[in-house]
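Tip: read the tokens left to right.
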């Protein structure tokens, strides 16, 4: 029985993250999941998110001084972070392999990962500023 409940909660959490296009944080996910599974606790939401991250189903976007947000977009992509509202927008653009370039230039370092982040304005903020 406990197993079945776990599966249901897990599915509900994953559904919410997958349907959201706004890279939600745990608090927002909790609000949405409660509409489907009213008895779920915030602690369960956190644990479920951790498990989904460990399985590679969702990607955590950790940002200094802010709550971690979650991304269920399986296509490799980059992010534009809106300077005004903090919205995270998916950018599916092809970029040169900076990791390979850095590894080739610095063979005596171990370079594990690279992160490219774009900064600017989301569509909403851009419209607000220009209208
Ligand atoms: Zn914005
Ligand atoms: Zn994304």
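Filled-in amino acids:
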């Amino acid at each position: 029985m406990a197993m079945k409940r776990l599966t249901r909660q897990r599915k509900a959490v994953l559904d919410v993250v997958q349907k959201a296009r706004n890279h939600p944080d745990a608090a927002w996910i909790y609000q949405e999941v409660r509409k489907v599974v009213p008895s779920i606790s915030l602690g369960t939401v956190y644990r479920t998110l951790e498990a989904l991250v460990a399985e590679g189903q969702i990607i955590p976007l950790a940002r200094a001084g802010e709550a971690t947000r979650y991304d269920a977009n399986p296509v490799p992509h980059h992010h534009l972070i809106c300077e005004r509202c903090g919205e995270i927008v998916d950018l599916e653009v092809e970029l040169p392999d900076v990791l390979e370039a850095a590894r080739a230039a610095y063979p005596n370092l171990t370079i594990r990962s690279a992160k490219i982040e774009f900064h600017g304005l989301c569509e909403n903020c851009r419209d607000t500023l220009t209208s």
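The CA atoms of residues 21 and 82 lie 14 Å apart. The first strand starts at residue 59 and ends at 61.
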